[in-house]
Amino acid sequence: MTVLALAGVTRVHGDGETAVHALKGVSLQIAEGELVAVMGPSGSGKSTLLNVAGGLDRPTSGTVHIDGHDLAAVRDLAALRRRSVGYVFQDLNLITSLTAAENVMLPRELDGVRSRKAREEAMAVLTEIGAESFADRFPDELSGGQRQQVAIARALVGERRLLLADEPTGALDTPGGDEILRLLAARCEAGASVLLVTHEPRYAAWADRVVFLRDGVVADATDVPMVSAR
Amino acid sequence: MSIRHGLLALLSRGPRHGYQLRVEFEASTGATWPLNVGQVYTTLARMERDGLVEAGESDDQGRVVYAITEAGRAEMERWFTTPVVPSDRPRDELVIKLAMAVAAKAVDVAEVVRRQRTATMRTLQQLTRAKRDVTGGPAQLLVLDSMIFQAEAEQRWLDHCEAVLKEAR
Q1: Angle at Cα B142 formed by Cα B138 and Cα B148, nearest 5°?
Q2: If you count residue pairs, one on A and one on B, with CB atoms under 8 Å apart, how many are there?
Q3: Can you give the three-state secondary structure of chain A, one letter per residue?
Q4: Which of A79, A130, A168, B118 has the most CB atoms at less than 10 Å from its CB?
Q5: Looking at the domain that runs over A37-56+76-221, which CATH code has it been given?
Q6: Domains of chain A, residue spans
Q7: pTM of the model
Q8: B3-86: what fold?
Q9: Chain A residues whose beta carbon lies within 8 Å of the beta carbon of residue B117
C-alpha cells in the first residue's frame, strides 16, 4: 500500500526574475514499511521536498497524497498532519521543561486524548524503541542520541505510520548515527514508512531505496537495476 | 598483508590445526576474505620451513596441530608494529577512469559520475545490510565498517567531482 505519493510536484519560491524553482516536477511513492532516503547537496530541494510531502508547504503544481488523501482537498490539514505524519528534525525541538515521556505525550494530548491514555501510549512507544529507562528524565539530562530517540518516539506515537526525518543524525558520532538508523529501519520492519533526508552516504545506505535529488529533479535512484561496469 | 600473518595471530592464542585456522580466519574477517583449506596448509608448510611454526602430533582424526615458535611471535610483533603504506595497494580503476573521461572530452563525465554514484550507493546498501545481519563478534563488524567507510569516501569523492566539474563548465 502506498502511504505517500508525490506526482509531478513543483515548488516555486517568489516570482518574476527572482523566482527560485526549488522542485521542478518530482514524483515519488513510498510504500508501507519502506525506508526511502533522499540525498542531495544543499540547494537541491531536499528540505522543500520534505516540507511539501508532510503538508507543511504547498506545491505550486502537482499533487501530494498521504494515505490516499489529496492534501489539496483536505479540509483540516493540521489534523491530518497530526494524526498521520510524524516529524524529526535536526534541531530536535524537544520541550526542555517537559520529561521525555511528557514530550512524547504532547501530540496526543493536543489531539484530545486524555493524559492517562496519552501516557500509556507514550510509554508503549518508548518501550518499543528501548527508551523506557529514561522516560522520566528531562532533555538536558539525556545524551544527544537519547534525545533523538525521544524525538522519534514522539513522531511515532499514536496511529502515525509516516515519519519524515530531516538530517536526524545531526551532530551524532558514527555509532550514535548508526543507532538512529537501526531504530528507523526497525520501525519500518514493524510497518512504518520513513522518508529520510540526509547528505551522509553512510546513513542513506540504510534505506531500501536511495533517491538522488539534483537541482529540483530526481537525477537517479537505486531501485533501477543497472549493470556494473567496474 | 599475507595470510601467514593472519595465521600467526590466530596461533598466538594456542596450537590449532589447519581446518580450525580456516574457520577462525573467516569468522574474524566476516568471510570477506574466503580461504580454502589447501591455501592454509600450503602456507603452514612454508611457515614451518621458515621456522615460524612447529608441527606437532596428529590428533585422533589424523590432523596435524601447529604451534607458533619464538621466531613466529617476533614476526607477528613486527607486523603489528609496522604501519601499512598506501603504495602496497593497487591503483584505483575508478580514479583513472574519471581522469580519462575528463581528458577524452567527448565523454559525458557527469553521466559517468552519476552512474558510478548509484552503483557505489548500491554497494553501500549491501554492506549496510550485511552489517545489520552480523552475528559474529566485533572483528567482523570492524571489517564491514572499513568497507563502508571506503565506499562512503568514494561517494563523497564523486559528489566532489560533480561539484568541481560543474564549476569548470
Answers
A1: 145
A2: 55
A3: CEEEEEEEEEEEECCHHHCEEEEEEEEEEEECCCEEEEECCCCCCHHHHHHHHCCCCCCCEEEEEECCEEHHHCCCHHHHHHHHEEEECCCCCCCCCCCHHHHHHHHHHHCCCCHHHHHHHHHHHHHHCCCHHHCCCCHHHCCHHHHHHHHHHHHHCCCCCEEEEECCCCCCCHHHHHHHHHHHHHHHHCCCEEEEEECCHHHHCCCCEEEEEECCEEEEECCCCCCCCC
A4: A168
A5: 3.40.50.300
A6: 37-56+76-221
A7: 0.79
A8: Arc Repressor Mutant, subunit A (1.10.10)
A9: 212, 220
Name the residue among B40, B70, B44, B39 with its Cα closest to residue B56: B44
Q: From B92, which residue of chain A is nearest by alpha-carbon distance?
A: A230
Q: Which three cell numbers stand for residue A139?
A: 532533555
pLDDT in tens, chain B (169 residues): 578 888 998 899 899 999 999 988 888 877 677 888 899 999 999 999 999 999 988 878 888 999 999 999 999 888 888 777 655 555 677 887 787 788 777 778 888 898 889 999 999 999 999 988 888 788 888 999 999 999 999 999 999 999 898 887 7
Please report the ipTM that was assigned to this predicted complex: 0.79
As a whole number of angstroms, the distance between CA B60 and CA A170 comes to: 58
Distance between B2 CA and the closest CA of chain A, angstroms: 26
Residues A219, A207: Cα–Cα separation, whole Å: 17
Tell how many helices (H) and how many strands (E) occur in chain B: 7, 3
